[in-house]
Amino acid sequence: MSEMIQTVPIELTVNGRRRALEVAVHHTLLDVLRDDLELTGTKECCLVGECGACTVSLDGRIVDSCLVLAVEADGAQVTTVEGLAAVDGHLSPLQQAFLDKGAVQCGFCIPGQLLSAQALLAENPHPTVPEIQEGLAGNLCRCACYQQITEAVLATAEGADR
Amino acid sequence: MHTFAYARPTTLAEAVALLETHGPDARLLAGGTDLIIRLRNGTLTPVVVVDLKRIPELCLAIHEDGGRLVISATTVMTDIAANELVRRHFPALAESAAVVGSVQIRNRATLAGNVCNASPAADTAPSLLVYDATVVAEGPGGTRRILVDDFFVRSGVTTLARGELVTAIELPLPARKMGAVHVRRTRRRGHDLASVTLCCGVDDAGVTRIAYGSVGPRPVLVVDESGALADPAAPDEAKALIFERMFADASPSTRSMRASPEYRLAMLRVLGARALRTAIDRLAQG
């Protein structure tokens, strides 16, 4: 039995660039970012909203993109890890701090960690360690770099004052 | 993921009509943090998914109306936890909304979705029970208001009728001064489901309301009107007897991986006593 797959035209802005595309209604924002737009920095992992590897910013708020249908992002502003560095390719201060503190081991969780950390700092420029742990609780790191990730966020917050 | 038709109605009437036509073959999409998991793992295979986020009546900001605080169906946990009115009048609801899932989940998950999912472990259920919240449902027969205590049946089952959808959760502004707190026990700090989730509210007439979840098929509300629990001078033995009566309805599952029944029942008593002390302190502090 062949099933009719409904598709819907959507428009969204990804990393500052307007995109218009036709998406299957049962495809998630994660599917469309990775497969249709070939932005593979955002990772697919647990698919149940526990690991945070698929974290992106949607209209200024971080979400698990595996739990958002692409059609729900119609009209939205999306930022992925590919949108964090400056246009000239220079890493953002947060990205640089992750490297400097050794927070990146295998790297798989890092795109999500960066998006969550950036959202935390935007809302709370000087987080305490417990606030960082709470803000990043939705991002698991199997290399267990939590200490270094926390240090990178603290260093970024301190660096922003200078 | 199994495919389905996607509908994005812009009026409540259209959404109700879709529900009436398709019955259980239609599933409502608000935050999607539970629905999309179940669409993907195949435990739900709806014909149509109805996205509620373009219906203006379901997207109102949190507001007061005639002595009640109204929280629309698409309001997410992040906005509830941060809202000034919620924090002032219903601090335990703000506390419970702030511990649901992770930041990513709270940015999508709605209070109405948490209630409709009717999970025994729903963290917002105990505070809604303590604050005597009402679920507002719209259906083919018009608007119906259901006390949240009459809404939960068991996991995933509520008293919503076919064709009805939840448009808002309403909380009556407290007539008396109340001190309240939400507490819970999880395996790990951060992002986890509760092994026990509990809310305690004490008002200045000496009435203590305790609601607890994750220890039975549905969240339970119990009320002590004797004044003994709320009395800081009452002996602990007297309080322990009342607690035993209040917790008699707890019947934790033996099959859950999160915690054993023995552990949950022990922690229920610990959390109950702890929450009572905090609620009394908060009442005294005003």
List keywords for this structure.
heterodimer, A: 162 residues, Ubiquitin-like (UB roll), 2 domains, five-stranded mixed sheet, 5 helices, B: 286 residues, Uridine Diphospho-n-acetylenolpyruvylglucosamine Reductase, domain 2, 3 domains, 14 strands
3D structure, described in words:
Chain A has 162 residues and is an alpha+beta fold. Chain A has two domains: 7-83, Ubiquitin-like (UB roll); 93-159, Orthogonal Bundle (DNA polymerase, domain 1). Chain A has helices at residues 29-36, 93-100, 110-123, 129-135, 146-159; strands at residues 7-14, 17-24, 55-58, 61-64, 77-79. Chain A has a five-stranded mixed sheet with strand order 2-1-5-3-4, covered by helices on one side. In chain A, helix 2 (93-100) packs across helix 5. The longest helix of chain A is centred in the last third of the chain and has 14 residues, at 110-123. The model of chain A has no long low-confidence stretch (mean pLDDT 96). Chain B is of the alpha+beta class and 286 residues long. Chain B has three domains: 5-51, Uridine Diphospho-n-acetylenolpyruvylglucosamine Reductase, domain 2 (2-Layer Sandwich); 57-172, Uridine Diphospho-n-acetylenolpyruvylglucosamine Reductase, domain 3, CATH 3.30.465; 178-285, Enolase-like, domain 1, CATH 3.30.390.50. In chain B, 32% of the residues lie in helices and 26% in strands. Chain B contains ten helices and 14 strands. Chain B has helices at residues 12-22, 35-41, 77-82, 84-89, 91-97, 103-106, 111-117, 124-130, 236-246, 261-285, and strands at 5-7, 26-29, 48-51, 63-65, 68-72, 134-139, 142-147, 152-154, 157-158, 165-172, 178-186, 194-203, 208-213, 220-224. In chain B, the strands form four sheets. A five-stranded antiparallel sheet of chain B has the order 4-5-10-6-7. A four-stranded antiparallel sheet of chain B has the order 11-12-13-14. A three-stranded parallel sheet of chain B has the order 1-3-2, with helices on one face. In chain B, a hairpin with a 2-residue loop joins strand 4 (63-65) and strand 5 (68-72). Chain B is globular, with a radius of gyration of 19 Å. The termini of chain B are far apart. The mean pLDDT of chain B is 96. At the A-B interface, strand 4, helix 3 and helix 4 of A face helix 2 and helix 6 of B.
